[in-house]
Amino acid sequence: MAQTLTFLCISTYFKGNDFLKACKEAGNKVFLITAKKLENKPWVKESIDEFFYVEEGEDGTYDMTEIINGLAYVMRNRPIDRVVALDDFDVEKAAHIREYFRIPGMGQTTGRYFRDKLAMRTKAAESGILVPGFSSLFNDEDINRFIVKYPGPWMIKPRSEASATGIKKMHDATELWQTIHELGDKRHAYLVEQYKPGNVYHVDSISYNGRVIFSWNSKYLAPPFDVAHGGGIFRSVTVPFDSAEDHALETLAVDLLKAFGLKHSASHTEVIRCHDDGKYYFLETSSRVGGANLSEMVEASSGINLWKEWAKMETAEAKGRDYKLPLVRKDYSGIIISLTRQEWPDMSVFNDPEIVWRMNDPYHVGLVVRSKSREKVVELLDKYAEIIQKDYHASAPAPNRPSH
């Protein structure tokens, strides 16, 4: 009889249904740890054998001792073979659980490279990968040396928040020091980085046995920071295939994930091509599928569902079987997402045959388009951006921490 493995998935945000479904379809038992407040979200319940709910503390964190104690009780009669974090915020929890119960997979040291922006920058720089100038905020003299070496503007970033939340931009040393002093006893949890204007890209990939077996390059049409802080419209489009951009991005991502020691996982890496020198600089990475529905966009162009393939690959690896990626298609795709003034905006105005996915969330408009022609994709995204800006768009201030 085929061996049934038990996968413990962790997602304290509502995401990852495709992974959970594919994991169950691959013949596994699926357990899910999620936040109590997400109990009534439309999880794929038929694919989940057991739910475990955890309560969020007042500071937005979860008590790991409580989680470990609860799992120790579960494991008395239900062994767990693999632990998978489906969101950025759960990577550390998963690493902690693996190390405590000696479950195979990424431990806490490697996990830090995918969560802690200071650890990932330090490791990338040590590995010969270009990064914008940066400094920890531990020591005042180090910060002053940084200010002299790297002219402003600068960004102060939390070391372990996802997306563009909690990021501030400063233009002179007085403003920078004022912001650092305002952080008070929390300043060690932040870093400062030189702001480099440029085009921001994302590389969405799957690693198997320490090798990148799938890598897809796309370019944001407005940087995520500008969207989050300037109330813009989020857009991204596939990079031209076999172009210099395409090769440079793939090379950087492959070198980076190898240096970071990623064995088996999906990952989402952000890179900036600086306007001043035309070089590609590493911004950040994570060991999960990219957020903001980017997986829908990647699937539209490549035919590869990152969540499903990640689940199949994890299962094959755990069972000691070989995993093979399905055939990859090469179309162009683009995504556009915006907050709207209307709770359920009328989407009938968007009726082009290239539309392959529509967002179905209140106060949002979102579309993915696909075409053989990149020009067509960009043309449609430009057209939709104009319509959205005029008739639908609303902006909200960027939160200090992400909302659920």
From TrEMBL:
Residues 121-315 form the ATP-grasp domain. It comes from the Bacteria. The keyword rRNA processing does not apply. The keyword Ligase applies. InterPro entries: ATP-dep_AA_Ligase (IPR052032), ATP-grasp (IPR011761), ATP_grasp_subdomain_1 (IPR013815). Keywords: ATP-binding, Ligase, Nucleotide-binding. SUPFAM superfamilies: Glutathione synthetase ATP-binding domain-like (SSF56059). This is Biotin carboxylase.
